Every structure is written in C-alpha cells, then in structure tokens.
Amino acid sequence: MSEIIYGFIFGFLSSVGFGIITNNPRRTLIPAGLVGAIAWIVYIVVGWYNHGLIMPNLMGAVVIGILGNLFAILVKAPVNIFYVPCLVSLVPGAILYDSMRNFTLGNDSQAAYGFVKALTVGMSLAIGFIIAEVIANKLYPPVKRYLAKREKR
Amino acid sequence: MGAISERDIVTLCGQVGTILLENGAETARVENTVEYVGRAADLPVVCHATMTGIFVSSEKSATTRIFKVRVGDFNLQKVDDINTLSREFTSHKITYEQLQNEVDRVENENRDFSWLTKCFGAGLVSMPPMLLFKATWGDLGIAFFVGIIGYVASQYVGHHTKIPYIPVAVGSLAISMLAHVLGIYGIAHDANYIIISALMPLVPGVPMTNSLREIIERNTISGLVRATDAIMSGISIGSGVIIGQIIIRTVMGG
C-alpha cells in the first residue's frame, strides 16, 4: 500500500518536473502530473501480477494514452504535450544507457541484450499508445460534441 | 485576400511547420496542421515533413518551398502556442495578418521557466527510479542533487558549443564523477543506482519511444532519424559515465 502512495507522489513529481524541463504550458502541468502518477501506479500494480517487461509498460502507456487524450480535449492542447512528460518515468532510458555503457566497455553480448530490452519496452509503449488512440477515437467524440455545445450556450 | 501572394502563404505555412517540428511535435501532426492552415487561407497546400526538412507546395500552381529544420530540445510551450493559433485561424477567429504577426512573435519569443525552477524540475525527475531499487532516503536526496548538477552541466555546455552530443556527455561525466566520489567516501550507498537515477533528465528515453511511434505510423524516415539520434546520445552518455569512472578510479584509487 505504501508503495502505491509513494508511487503516486513521485510519479506526479517526476511528470511535473519533466514538464518544467520541456517548458510545458503552465495550465497543462497539473493534469500531466496526474496522468503520470496514475500511469505509474498502474505500472507498479501490473508489475505485481506480471513480471515481464511488456505488460506493465503496455498498460501504463494505454492509461497515459486514454487519460492524455481526455485531458487534451478538456484543456485544449495537443496530446503530445501530455505524452512527453508522463512517459518519462516509464521510458527505457536507463536500460538504453546501461546497454550503451556495456557497448563502451566492450561487453558486446550484454550490450545487445540491453538494446533488445530497450527496444521491447519502447515497442510496448508505442503499441500501448496505438491501442489507447483507437479506444479514444471511439470514446471521446461524444465528449467533444457535448463540450462544444456547452461552449456555444 | 487579394494582396497576399501565394508565395507568402506557402512561406507562412512552412514557418508554422518549422516551429512545430523544431520544438518536438511529431511529423504527422506537423503535416496536418500545415495543410489545415493552408486550406483556411484559401490555398490548398501539400506538406511533406521529415526530421530534416519540410516541403510545402501549393496545389494551385508550381510554388514550392523547402525549409531546413534542425531538431532541438523540447519546447512544448511553442507547440501549444502554434496549435492554438492555427485552431483560431481555421475557425476564422483571427485574420491572416494577425496570424502572421503572432507566428513571428512565437518564433522569436522565449517564454520559459526560470533557471531555478528548471533545476528543481530536473531534480524531481531524478528521483523515481530510486523507488524501484528500494533505495534509502539518503540516497534519494543525493540523487536529487546529483541530477540537478548533471542537468546544469549539460545545459551550460550546451550554451557554449554547437557540437551535438557533447552537452549530454559532459553532463553524464559530471554525474558519474560526483556519484563515484560520494560512493568512495561512503556518503552514498550505491554509486550505480545514483548514476542511473541522476541520468533521467538527460537520457533519450522519450525520443526513443517517439521514434518507434513514428515507425508504427509509417513515417519510417523520421522514425529512423530519431532512433539514430537516441542511440547516439545513449552512446555519448555511456562513454561520459565510463570516462568519469576511470578518472575517479585513477585519481582516488577506489
């Protein structure tokens, strides 16, 4: 349980932090942080039941995609603005670094192994986004129409 | 609309696309936005965007322009500004002249968070991996500060050199030296965990994922360009860390 609470806090902080580095518009910082925190929790919880690399990342990306698209409609911003900061805690950066470090040290087989792992994580994130976008495209047009109607009134 | 020549519209479209691409939008989005703006200005244009250049061509005549692009850091504020402008223009809330002035303003302006805030952000990004390693609170705090120092080092070098990949290499060099010194003196429990956490703001994870997304959307060229870029900066980060390790080992004999 405490893992979930810490996960929420630090997922939020890291998404907001990366949002600051990439100069996100200020009005999107808090939503981006929320999406990142929820995605991080999903990542942890799925990781309890499935010890592979693929499922936790894929589910995290699906959550980012669905919530990111929702907030993109609510805050009226391009969806990429939510993807970039929320991704930072899931992304295979550390694995890629480790693989490239082994490459520099001459441990070629470990470098190749790490690189394949980084590609796996990246692929599962990308596929998660595609799944989320398919769902979002079916789900959100009614929300959009409702908001447009309310604005006109 | 009589006074505006076709060439002006094509140029403006290219300008819009260049700003979007340079600051981190994906190519499909750039092409869409440019074509929307063109249609709203009564000139259907065709746009082809890759990571290194944008081609904008008018469908009515043979007017074509090529724009060179140097993809840099993320600056999502500009992406959002341009997106808002193009949305307002396509729904005819602002005129063509207003759009042109605003695009020029966005291109030159530098609305950014202050240095201190950015450093604080870099520190925040450096913390979450420590949770996965079940690190102590002390190490968590150290990762926060080492992450800030690495980010500042890479930004400082980035302002003074135009050579790509050197900034991240220097940033990771600083992180690695600091973490190993702290590890040798026993202040930090595990230097390697601190290095991995503190590298989070520098490491090319997001470009890597974006490149795979582009490949899946069949923008193969842009995807490969981004992937190569990510791997190159991964290599420079790795070598930076190794060099730092070697230096510290030689000097302090750890």
TrEMBL record, chain A:
Transmembrane segments: 6-22, 29-48, 54-74, 81-100, 112-136
Classification via InterPro entries: ThrE_2, ThrE_Dicarb/AminoAcid_Exp
Subcellular location: Cell membrane
Keywords: Cell inner membrane, Cell membrane, Membrane, Transmembrane, Transmembrane helix
Stretches assigned to the Threonine/Serine exporter ThrE domain: 8-135
Keyword Transmembrane set for record: yes
Membrane-topology annotation of the record: Multi-pass membrane protein
PANTHER family: SUCCINATE TRANSPORTER SUBUNIT YJJB-RELATED (PTHR34390:SF1), UPF0442 PROTEIN YJJB-RELATED (PTHR34390)
Protein name: Threonine/serine exporter family protein
Organism: Companilactobacillus huachuanensis
TrEMBL record, chain B:
Protein name in the entry: Threonine/serine exporter family protein
Ranges for domain Threonine/serine exporter-like N-terminal: 12-244
Sections of the chain in a coiled coil: 82-116
Originating species: Companilactobacillus huachuanensis
Segments crossing the lipid bilayer: 135-153, 165-187, 193-212, 224-248
Principal subcellular localisation of the protein: membrane
Pfam families: ThrE
Key word Nucleus present: no
Family (UniProt): Belongs to the ThrE exporter (TC 2.A.79) family.
Bilayer topology term: Multi-pass membrane protein
Keyword list, A-Z: Cell membrane, Coiled coil, Membrane, Transmembrane, Transmembrane helix
Domain of life: Bacteria
Cellular compartments annotated: Cell membrane
